[in-house]
Structure formats: structure tokens, C-alpha cells
Amino acid sequence: MYTTTMTVLQPEAHITVKKSRLKLYENRNYYLKDKTTFEIELFNPTSQKVLAKIWLNDKLISASGIVLRPHERVYLERFIDNPNKFVFNTFEVDNVKETADAREKNGLVKVSFFSENSGSGWVTTTSSPTVLYGNGTTFTTTSNPYTITGISTNYINTSATNAASYITSVETGRVGEGTKSEQDLRSVDGKFSDFSFIGYEFQILPESLKTVYAGDIRQYCHECGTRIRKSSWKFCPNCGEKL
């Protein structure tokens, strides 16, 4: 008895710096330093055209999208409606409940793909799509998940306990407009589905929030500086110093 495994090709989205993919950590997090410019890698391995729409900081960046031809890969480095590069800027805020909702949306990146419809016409994507995460989990919403309302700034009453002196700060980061990009975008005709068939969601966070695991820490010989690659080593392979 023979079995056949079929792989369904789906469009992909990744975060890259200088066209090199970054490591995607658990909970779909990427980590960047302050003022880092980056790209969004879009890849269409299918035999049909697809449209990619992008949200940054949980806000749709344009009513237009990026059309990918069959088997096309694009490293989008700029906003669609203006020629400025994507840049990640970090800053500190009070670590209080009033800033929590805003911090959850800071650095949030969403990419949804829409299939091409037969016939001619202009691009149309008016409905809120269902988000299908890269791990296959479907997340359906009853309201538009891609809008962000204004967040009011509240002051903290500290007249009784002077609680403000105990408030700590936390670093957060948002995607903003960087320097001018030379990447050229051109308008094309096309008609695409109102509903996304697959999407990805990531969050870019400051490096200060990155969890460091023991396996990520490099150790070196205190005598000659040789990197210790195995925990089982009792002596330095270069100078023989006891570890």
C-alpha cells in the first residue's frame, strides 16, 4: 500500500533586514534594534496572481495592495502611498494599564492574501477578511480587526499615595516612516476577491524584550578567549586551561 502526501502551496510573508530573513520567535515575535529599517518579503509560489494587503501597527497602510505574479518574490521596503522606508522606532512608556492596549498594537504586522477573480476591473477589497495564521489556526472575527481607534491619555491621581514614584517604564516600538526609498511601484489593473484566503500576523518588538535562553549565551575561555562550543568540555581545546 502506498500513500501520497500532497503539499498545498500558499503565499508567504516574512520580515527581513537587507533581504535576509530574521528569526521568528515563539508567539510570532521578531526583535529589532531602534531605528532599524526592514523589508516585508512577499512570495507567491502559486500559478495564479494574488494581492497582498498590509497592516502596520494594526492599521491598514493603503487601500491598494501589492500584486504578485505567479512564482514572484518581492522585498517591499516602503509604504505604498508614499516612498518612505519601513523603520522600527523604539521608545519608553509608563508600564501601566492605560498604555497596555496601545502597546499590544505597536509593531503589529499583518499581511493578508487575496485571490484573483476572473474578468477585468479595478482592484477591490472592501470586506474584512478572516485571518488564517501560518500555523493553520483560523481566527474569525465579527468586527473589523484591522482598525485602531484613538487612545486617550489619562493622568494618574497620586495625591494620596504618591504612586507615580513607583511606576516603572517599559520599552515599546512602532513602525514608522524612514528615509526616502528608491523602490518603484506601478499601478496595474486587476480584480481580486473581497475575502482573504490566507494571512500572517507578526509583532516586531524591541530587543530589550527578547527572552535570552541559556543555549543562546556564548561562553569563552577566560584565558585565551576561545569559544567554548560544548558544555562537556573540561579544558580549553586551544590553551588547555581548566574550564
Task: Please sum up the structure shown.
The chain is mainly beta and 243 residues long. The protein has one helix and 16 strands.
SSE map:
Blueprint (H helix, E strand, L loop, with lengths): L11 E6 L2 E2 L7 E4 L3 E8 L6 E7 L2 E2 L5 E3 L4 E4 L7 E11 L2 H9 L2 E8 L15 E2 L5 E2 L29 E12 L17 E9 L12 E2 L6 E2 L15
Parallel strand pairs: 3-14
Antiparallel strand pairs: 1-2, 1-4, 4-8, 4-9, 5-6, 5-7, 5-10, 9-13, 10-14, 11-12, 15-16
The run of helices and strands is: EEEEEEEEEHEEEEEEE
**Average predicted local confidence, pLDDT:** 79
Unreliable stretches (pLDDT < 50, length at least 5) are 120-161
What gross morphology would you assign? globular
Q: DSSP strand (E) fraction?
A: 25-35%
Largest sheet, in brief, is:
6 strands, antiparallel
Structural class designation: mainly beta
Rg result: 23 Å
How far is the N terminus from the C terminus?
56 Å
Total strand segments: 16
Roughly what percent helix? under 10%
Count of distinct structural domains: 2
Number of helices: 1
Explain this structure to me?
This protein has two domains: 12-211, no CATH class; 214-243, no CATH class. The protein contains one helix and 16 strands. The chain has one helix at 97-105, and strands at 12-17, 20-21, 29-32, 36-43, 50-56, 59-60, 66-68, 73-76, 84-94, 108-115, 131-132, 138-139, 169-180, 198-206, 219-220, 227-228. The strands form four sheets. Strands 1, 2, 4, 8, 9 and 13 form a six-stranded antiparallel beta sheet that branches. A hairpin with a 5-residue loop joins strand 11 and strand 12 (138-139).
